[in-house]
Write the structure tokens for this entry.
Amino acid sequence: MEPIRNIKKPELKTEIPGPRSKELAIQKERYTPRGNSPGIPVYIARGEGAIVEDVDGNRLIDFTGGIGVSNVGYSSPKVVNAVKSQADNFFHTCFTVAGYEGFIQAAKKLTELMPGDFPKAATFFNSGAEAVENAVKIARRYTGRPGIIVFDNAFHGRTLLTMTMTSKYYPYKSHFGPFAPEIYRMPYAYCYRCSYGLKYPSCKMRCAHRLDEMFHTVAPADQIAAIVVEPLQGEGGFISAPKEFLQILREITKKNGIVFIDDEIQSGCGRTGKMFAIEHSEVIPDLITVAKSMAGGLPLSGVVGNKKIMDAPQVGEIGGTFGGNPVACAAAIEALDIISDKDFLKRATKIGEIVKKRFLSLKENFDVVGDVRGLGPMVAMEFVKDKETKEPNPNFVKELLHYCYKKGLLVIKAGTYNNVVRFLAPLVITDEQLEAGLSILEEGIKEVEKVKKEER
Ligand SMILES: Cc1ncc(COP(=O)(O)O)c(C=O)c1O
């Protein structure tokens, strides 16, 4: 098969979607439920680096990484080799039945990567939601308290508990209640749309101090097991909180014996140019949840944290049939090795600088780009109808994404108001591919703006 890793720009053989993708879309409708459907109407046959090839032979630049799962790139050779060699040995034993070394090696690796000068332990599950659920279980077991504090715009998953913890109602929670009890919500430092109508830094992080206030007005601190926070909110719209926000939360949780759970499922694994996004704030969490890019594309999630807290559940109280699958652990050992390499993180930071510079120039030049934010290569643009009123512009984003995939660029939205375009390309993307993708985005903004003006 012809290598596609280094192609310089999209290579389109048909219109997007092509005939074979259209056929598969018909079968998809026939055999699978509509609740779980591809947002971009292409079906993928293979991927290498930051390029995917669809079933019609179209080669597309990917700015999505399958929602942040492909930081080391599609078909990373080291990961593929590790998977093949583990597959030759065995697929599964269930770690709660009979152990295997890969689980322990992957756990050791995570404990070495987590910041903080204390003994640590790590364990594995299948999905991000499952990791968050288990982090909550561990914190409740450790503290003997029921309450959990979460944030506006948070996303933690789709199971009953994590759906409850998630903020946005449509589509994540729509008519799926009743929800889990003992979940309390506070504002996040969404400075572009401050909950208190204040401005950073003169606000003195009013939103973070809400936590102290909640102990009087909502639930006492001695009933709160944990706070679960994304250091940079992903699905919520790539909202990067000032570091003081996380520092104040950490201080208050420490004072009150509340477990600080850092949800790095989207922001971890090099996505912000550091192993974990929390490192930008120098806050040391108690527990970190990881998933997505950790196993280079295989389903694996984990909780890593302070061993004293991790050891709270007794034997048999946490685990699962597939959690820490041997093939996924073998992939994770390689993927974590690649990501934690300082040159990989340096390149990730460089990618972030290029993207942010371009996004900022788009903000300068287009009235629809209201905000540009993020850390390292976890960057996004928020689209508005008017820079003064900041009225969200989800229709513009919808049309822009449509323009992009027609030109061979896969890119996705985020945000409570569906008006954020986020950059989640594999961090092995080449300079030419990055430039080609950013140019399509820029042309798209021009084109959609032109059409919108003509419609008026
Ligand atoms: C911060 C965060 N937590 C949890 C999850 C849930 O992960 P999963 O979809 O693997 O259950 C996600 C998924 O996007 C996420 O971004």
Q: What stands out?
A: The domain at 19-62+342-455 is CATH 3.90.1150.10 (Aspartate Aminotransferase, domain 1). The radius of gyration is 22 Å. The chain has two domains: 19-62+342-455, 78-340.
